[in-house]
Amino acid sequence: MQHKPLAGIRILEIGGYISLPFATSMLCALGAEVVKVEKPVHGEDFRRHQNDGSPYFRQYNTGKRSLSVDLKRPEGIAVIKALVPKFDVVLENLRPGKLAAMGLGPEDCKALRPDLIYGSVTGFGSGGPLADRPAYDTIGHAFGGLYSLFSDEGHPQLAGGLSADLVTGLVTATGVLAALVGRLRTGAGPQLETSIMEAVSTLTADGISQLFELGADPTRRSRHPQAQNFCVCTASGEYLAVHLSSSQKFWQALCVAMEREDLLTDPRFAEYRPREANYTELAEIVADEFAKQSVQHWDRVLTARDVPFAPVLTMSGYLAHEQVRWLDLVEPQADALAVLRPPWRFDGERPDRKGVAPRVGSDSRAVCAEVCTAEQIADLVAAGIVFPDDPA
Asked: pTM of the entire structure?
């Protein structure tokens, strides 16, 4: 039987795109019931007018329920207010103050349920000179220093992926879990706040330490001499990554694997500090050696010598790798979309993400039925305030 530690917890999500939905997707997989509040007809913008067909929307919303309601009308606000006491957590990622202006701010909602956990995810925080600016993943990368840290000096460039949004989701989920534990102890539901800018700080801890140690802003290459890592091409065209860190054991093992024991007594490389000072020369030597043999050769000899290394995988290569399969990290959908499971196991088992992403309003009638009569729901649907998946 699967261990779902959040079973019985109910979360009302008011927001969209990635940072908040990724957080609630993890909480949903841990057993929480997540009801997603969306605008009528087309739902949240990240559906991209594909309803439940967008692979991006499905990645971050599988397993949730959808309540489609017009929050621009007082009757829609009234529905949400009636529902709030039935939820443990309300989470939103709109602009600061927007929900409060609708009468759904933290004070309004906590007045309806005092032990409610109310969480807000913004771009820059609820105050300060940047509070009202819009923010997406790219903005978090730029303001958070990641573009300079991940680029060569003087040549900042866009990064692949959505690291800023995704880490914000993980930070948000962590905050909710901490708030739930705190409520068990005190009985009070705290107001939780985080932002893309705050969340990105968790990825800059090493860069800030480098700034202190180096006395200059670090860039993509700054850590390589310290980490003594290499990304090299083999004779068969595949790339491998090697990371030695400061361990003398791994340096010695690499030299033996390369059949370059002469480097062990070379004063430029014999110890960690000289290797750090002469890293550029060492990187060229390592690259030359790896170019002489196939990836199969290096896989064999590096494994035999216990050298920390890994193939440089593509996304398809990652999904196909036997270790990923063993970890059971992927929930395959009917059309083969790989939906990721949570990065935790409980009693040896990883929580699944069974179910599908909801269609817009697929649960509108059922959720409204918790606080409305059938006649009231029919009136709300007829007035266009509540949108069910079966409007007819």
From this structure: 0.94
